[in-house]
Task: structure prediction
Amino acid sequence: MTPTATTTDTSTAGQPSGGLHHVAHTHTVRIVVVPPGLVPNPDPDPGHGHGLSDGELEAGEAFLTATNVPASWHVPPTKGQPPKMIDVLKSTDIVVIRREPASVRTTDDDGHPVTSPAPDGQPEPRRHLRPHDSSPNETVLRVWTESDTIEYLCDQQFEIEKVEKAGWKIFGTPENPFERERNAAPYRATEERTVDAAGNVKIVWKWISGVLPAAADNQQYKATFIINGEKIDPDVVCGTPPPNP
Result:
């Protein structure tokens, strides 16, 4: 199973935000569901805060490593070969294993994020699939308010059951930053059908947030998604500019 989405965020007209100039973005978030048949039975003692065992993460990583990026992602080939999902997914994209969110991250052997290139002559750090827990701040999507929107895309039907404050709870911030333009949750993704050059029909499920309000600045939120009857809950942080990790 593969989602369909563009590979980069799209920009719109520049807008001021919090007294600073900012080029508005639509943050595209891909949701990839690892086929259940590829994942081993859950470990009763996984050793991770969100319940993903090493075996489950390895199975998910193997799937992403073996799966070509679909043509609809519009990623140019590398040395004539189509790139693999693990090479393209961002840390803020969502990989679902069972009911748990994970992300592709570039880390060292201790799991710490690596943001700079390897020294000359040294191999580049590997990209790994890691669970969402209290440590990987780079998996939290950060958006500017009064300018940015979020577009969630998946090849499976989904809905956002609820959105609520997470972590710190700042007085006066809205309980749900999407409600100003999208009314109250739940939010159901809409189906879009496209036909490729070979005549194949591709179904994409999409939901777009609308512009997030300045009243949500610096507040972190958790959105609860329902996919295949299971719930997952990645986070979003609002800001002008967004708070640092």
